[in-house]
Hints:
By secondary structure, chain A is mainly α. Chain A has helices at about 1-30, 35-55, 60-95.
Amino acid sequence: MNTAIDIFTVVAICAGAAFFMAGSVGLLRFPDSLTRLHALTKADNLGLGLIVLGLLPQADSLLGGLKLVAVWLLVQLASATVAQLIAQALRHRGRGT
Amino acid sequence: MNFLLVLSLVVPIAGALLAFGVGGRWVSRIALATMPLGLAIAVAIAAGLRPAGGSLVYLLGGWSPPLGVALRADWLSALMMVTTAVVISAIGLFARADFPAGMTETRRSFAFWILLLAVWGALNTVFLSGDLFTFYVSLELLVFVAVPLVALDGRAETLQAALRYLLFALLGSVLYLAGTGLLYGAYGTLDIGVLSGRIRGEPVTAVAVTLMTVGLMAKTALFPLYLWLPAAHAGAPAAASAVLSALVVKGSFFIIVRLWFFVMPGLAGVAAPQLLGALGAGAIVFGSLLALRQERLKLLVAYSTVAQLGYLFLAFPLALDAEAGRLIDGSALIAGLVQAASHATAKAAMFMAAGMIYVALGHDRIAALGGVVRTAPLAALVFLLAGVALIGPPTSGVYFAKTLFLRAADSTHQWWWSLVLDVGGVLTSAYLVMLVARALAPADQAAPSMAGIVSGQQPVAALALVLCSLLLGLLPWHAWLPLPLAVTTPDPLSLDALWSLVWPLLVGMALAALMGRRQNQRPLRMALWLEQADHALRQWPAAGFSLLGLTIMLGVALLLTP
Amino acid sequence: MSTSSDSRAGPPVRVAVGRAALFLAFWLMSAGYQPADLPVGLLAAAAATWASLRLLPPTATRLRLSSLIMFSLHFFRQSVISGIEVARIACDPRLPLRAGFVVYRCRLRSAGERGVFCALSSLLPGTLPTGTNEDGDLLIHCLDVTRPVVASLTEEETLFTRVLRHD
Amino acid sequence: MSAPTLAGLTGAALVGLGLYGLLVHPHPLRKLLGFNLLGSGVFLLFGIIARKGAAAGFAADPVPQAMVITGIVVAFCATALSVALLLRLFEAGGAATLRPDVGRDDSD
Amino acid sequence: MTEFLLGAAGFVLLTVAIGLIRVLGGPGNVDRTMAVQLLGTGGIAALLLVAAATGVRGAEDVALGLALLAAFASVAFVNSAAPEDDREAGRANE
Amino acid sequence: MSVIQALDISLAVLVLAVAIWTIVSRDAFAAVVGYVAYGLLVSLVWVRLFAVDVALTEAAIGSGVTGVLLISAAVRLRGTEAAVAAEWPGAGSRVLAAALCMVVTAALAAVVLTMPDPGATLAPEAARHLAETELGNPVTAVLMAFRALDTLLEKVVLFLAVIGVWSLAADGNWGGIAGPRRATNRQGALAFLAQLLPPVGIVVAIHIVWIGANEPGGAFQGGAILAAMWMIVIMARLAEAPAIGERRLRLALVAGPAVFLAVGLMGFAVANAFLAYPAGLAKPLIVFVEVFMTLSIAVSLPMLVLGPPDRPSS
């Protein structure tokens, strides 16, 4: 049972880390700011989500695990907003204002 | 009795909080009402010291050090607290006209009165604290009071002066904090009493004390780290300048004294106190000569502060007992603190006088001071008396301090410091003589139309302070301070005493004629060179190098101490 | 801020209770459950509800729970799929980017609903709302304009509209 | 090398770095950043002291930690006051320079 | 397991560092603002992993705090860099 | 080398790299962003040092609120860097300065390396007296009981900083308002965030203040989060900052230090010492004081960030 849980954790966290890497690769390779913004906000969010998912079974209690979910939800809200704000700012800049 | 220690911090701070909460016209009323109370507390502590055996201790929250924080009062605290209370009360009286309680709340009055109370609380914390970290917090309190005071007028140049001051003072605080941390890490306590029992001459102590001392020197504006002082002190409103020059810089000086004399008296070695004394000597000579070269009265007074701060640091080499290898908190230290008290009262009065002259003439250009004796006779008189008090006639605190210094130089065989003291006296006389000459000159223009009217209370407040400074030497110090019996106050009317007053004046006159700014004459090459050096030292790069260089010199001096 | 809520007779109690329950749940999530702490949790929920009602005055919109679950499932599935998509593009040696803007005519009219929808679609990989154009249509930036972006957005909007119920 | 020692060395390096920034950079805002780095380095020195003082069941000595918290608050206040002054100086004088005698009003 | 979690934390930090190099370089301030966002998400991930590995009590609260403030810096940037016409519009509305 | 050492080293390298970027980058804004990133990383370092209270403070203040302050300043000061370029000291001076700074660093590094392990500590003392404070978190016990004077004075520093910032106002704006005006339309992503996040932030902040008695957390960290939430609301133009002449604001600003002072003075009467708490009431009193301190902090920080009032109140 414990091994199964550990394997789940390892797999989920590895997947999460892979998304973080993909995000950074995107940041390096994508040609312009808007596309880089995609890489930044999407891949990293998914990465964090998977890491939280992997850590859930390692938490002491159910509520302890839910706290991690709360963290993830807040990051989601933040990056949803920031993505739009930065995209708008970029569009303004594109128009030369 | 001991609870008075707490009250001396709490009363001004509570006053500041209350004034802020109530606001409006009540701000100045609350501040003024706090003053007699604070003065009474300070006097009561000073009076209660001797019966209590020379020191009072209060354990905050009932927690004893090293875990808890203690307040301690001894003669140093009492001397500085009474001085502070007197100066603040006088400034309060003086400032009523400049910062009136109008029907509607105004920015300047609101800020000034609250800051005045806060500076009092902060200084009392400095004087009473027995804990290195509490020192840090109170140092920061002083910064947060002093900087808004500098910027109170809101002109671009005072804003800049305030920003320079803030950044440099913050640097000083952080260096001090770093040293505090290292001492805690090495000895597990921040309490001065406990620490002095544990501290040893290790490299970590040398590094910590170096950082702390240099940080505090930057805050005290000890030469050559004075880049912020002239503009800041000269740019503030008169009452604020008086606070800054008389009191705020003394706070950080006091902490250096606590650190060197009470935390590590046996670890100072020979070289480090000499270095501090040398910086003091440099301040005296450099600051005074530059005061001679100023065109504005307030700047002259500010440079005079740079010079006068130098005297305080002569206490370090002169207090060193070479045989015992430790700093003795005896007559040399007393001299340093009495000098601080005399300077506080005289300099506050001097800034007040400069402020009144500015109001009366509509400017403070030294070249155009002619006729001030008629336009603002009282202000001119106060200025003259304050200058005399700084030179030190036989009844004054400065004279008393100088006598103690000279005796200490004699008994420790360090003749060169007596030379510095004499030179300092001559230079101080020189700029006073120059000012008197200007003031007595006939007015070269019709009475200026911009002139304002000086309120009646203001000269009274300033005069009271000057008299304090002039008569400080007559106080029965022996009854109160741990002075060796051999030291006696000299007879103020003896021929020796008179001569010691007259000869610096005579030499000063000659020097004033030589060095001062004269119309239609080419300045001396040395004067120009001085001004260039001053200009460089007031820039960040040179000040930065001085700071780093001093850190390394002091560090080496302390590390090499056996 | 008070003006907008003053015009109403008072916030509907149901909304307040619903939000308070949500905030209490969040308290339990972040603080854990300890009976002694519960009064503080209730206080926190009350304070949060007060702030929430001032910042976001209740509207007549209600949520349908069953549709919300449906939508969430769709949303998570979609975000994983498109997350992989972004990752694939980033790591593909040929970098198959065909980035560009797509104009999307949003049927949601209320500002709040639109905000939620924009936030959700900005979380979905591949699409990024960058504001509105002169006609009030959403300008969506896409990593790959050749994909059926508008169609999938329409589907999401439909699912999203089902969650909302207007009284 | 243990984590506290490493943090301490980082702190020492930050002190030097911050000192350099504060003393050499001419722009006040950059000086302020230097000050913040300097302060942060000093706090990290407190951090290693706290961690090396772990005892009595505490993972770190609470006294230095409390001092750091106080220090962070004070550093923030200082930063806020500096920024306010700097912005006012910029508004009033049109420049953000610390060099004295620039734009000085020599008449009355 | 501890070693694995720490390794994962290190890996996430490393990838974040790589991304940081890219966005801090600009070209514009908007790009640089992304760096904060990048480090917000990655830092929280690393923090959670380290906390789970070393068992530091209360680290989740730090993560919660960071998550709450994750958008803060970007909001400040957008707010202060908002074009002047926006402010004028605000004034006209009064 | 173990994994954790590798992690610590890479964290230290990253912290230093971002710090160096902050100092050397040409552009002030880039430097500021570097500093915000630095603050985030440093709070990770604090977690590694098992100083979670500090990590929370650093996260909220060091990178959060300071970040906002500096970013706004950098945007407003854009273009002023070229003007001071002439004030750079010459290359020789810079090298010399760097060398001198390195001497300071070397001295500190030597001290760090020779520091005994385990070092001097007051942890056993604190542990012995912790029960008397009725708290579980030793850091809060130090802040609120053992070294309460410092905390009280620190709150006075905060209060004075607010006065200092306000005192920079133009005379005509005294009593007025700072910060952006309230907008009439509440649309856009920013308004969306400002409507959803603050209530959640309130819950978290209260949690952190409350838990601070026993676990990492406390008044300052909670107050800073509340302050951040309020600032988001102001920045999103959902509300205006209060006028500085407003009585309620003034009372909220002094509430923390004033209540602390009052409770401290009460100690004279009921516990035989200033800043002492009577047995059995220590924890409730400390929490009581913390509530007001949280309020003051939550109000002070936005006042500091918004700067002096720049328009009269209507």
